[in-house]
UniProtKB/TrEMBL annotation:
Gene Ontology MF annotations: DNA binding; DNA-binding transcription factor activity
Keyword flag Ribosomal protein: no
Protein name: LysR family transcriptional regulator
Domain HTH lysR-type residue range list: 1-58
Lineage, highest ranks first: Bacteria, Pseudomonadati, Pseudomonadota, Betaproteobacteria, Burkholderiales
Domain of life: Bacteria
Similarity-based family: Belongs to the LysR transcriptional regulatory family.
Keywords from the UniProt entry: Activator, DNA-binding, Transcription, Transcription regulation
PROSITE patterns: HTH_LYSR
Any GO BP: regulation of DNA-templated transcription initiation
């Protein structure tokens, strides 16, 4: 198996066409077809099939595609690590961030990396927590923002902030808390719109509820934070979340965040990297910048409901 075969296969999947991939790769189509056939013979399985939509990966092909991406990324990182300077880091850095944390970090981080490291190609991926964990473990991501649920032992982990979760409704909602705070029991009496179990925040909420001898009776499971936001604005119910994913709506007065008075409901936001794949100089520079930026956002009050943990940059 050769690296060029991995690149060829990835290009076909990405472009959905042998002819388009051949043009991008600057090789003739028969040669591309031959390389894919050799790859399939070596693996003993079919990786691609034709459909009305073009060339598509089979089930085995989709699995192989993920591994091929990870391998190609690690090779690129290795080359970058050899060639780059510690004074002027360059190369590609891929960082994953959960949907429920992107509101606080994503745009400030994009701006900060562009300003501080113009030679770094920064790839910011927003995904479900479970997907980020898999991509970080496989090497497709250099860094990931994850929530410490006690299952991060396989990664190098640096705790960033502790985020309080609040009871959030539409402004003037029928479900709004009547006082400045609300008890967990009362919060659980209204229909709750919560991220699905694949989100790192949901297991934390359910664990705290169980620990206090309660249960969630009325829940609407939604995978997308964008759809969850729309459901709250439509006054279909309330949610229990950190402020960060709904920060813009709260600041505009479209939503109201109410503290939970009798239970400490929070999550630890951590910056993680692989224990097995070393960070490039560029990735280490971004890692340090994430820590510094988190401190600035908390100190300035722009990361609402967050408390900086005692870590060294």
């Amino acid at each position: 198996m050769e690296l060029r075969q991995l690149r060829y296969f990835v290009a076909i999947v990405d472009h959905g066409s042998l002819s388009r991939a051949a043009r991008v790769l600057h090789i003739v189509q028969p040669a591309l077809t031959q390389q894919v056939q050799q790859l399939e013979e070596e693996l003993g399985t079919t990786l691609l099939h034709r459909s009305a939509q073009g060339m598509q990966a089979t089930d085995a092909g989709r699995i192989f595609y993920e591994h091929a991406l990870a391998i190609l990324k690690q090779v690129a990182d290795a080359k970058s690590a050899v060639n780059q300077s510690t004074n002027k880091p360059s190369g590609t850095v891929a960082l994953g961030i959960p949907q429920s944390a992107s509101g606080a970090l994503a745009f400030p981080l994009l701006s900060a990396v562009r300003a501080a490291f113009p030679d770094i190609v920064f790839q910011l991926t927003e995904e479900l927590t479970g997907n980020l964990t898999e991509q970080l473990a496989s090497g497709r991501l250099n860094l990931a923002i994850l929530f410490d649920d006690g299952q991060l032992g396989k990664f190098n982990t640096r705790a960033l902030v502790e985020e309080d979760m609040m009871f959030i409704t539409r402004a003037n909602s029928q479900f709004s808390c009547k006082k400045k705070s609300i008890s967990l029991a009362k919060a659980l009496q209204v229909p709750l719109i919560l991220p699905s179990i694949q989100h790192g925040v949901r297991p934390r909420i359910e664990q705290v509820v169980r620990d206090h001898g309660m249960k969630i009776d009325q829940v609407i499971d939604i995978t997308s934070i964008a759809i969850l936001r729309s459901a709250i604005l439509a006054d279909m119910g309330a949610t229990i979340l950190p402020v960060s994913p709904l920060l813009a709506e709260i600041e505009r007065g479209e939503m109201r965040a109410c503290p939970i008075e009798d239970v400490k409901l929070s999550r630890t936001v951590s910056l993680c990297s692989s224990k097995n794949i070393p960070l490039t100089n560029a990735a280490m520079a971004v890692e340090k910048l994430v820590i510094e930026l988190s401190r600035e956002l908390v100190k300035s009050g722009k990361w609402l409901g967050a408390e900086m943990l005692d870590i060294q940059p």
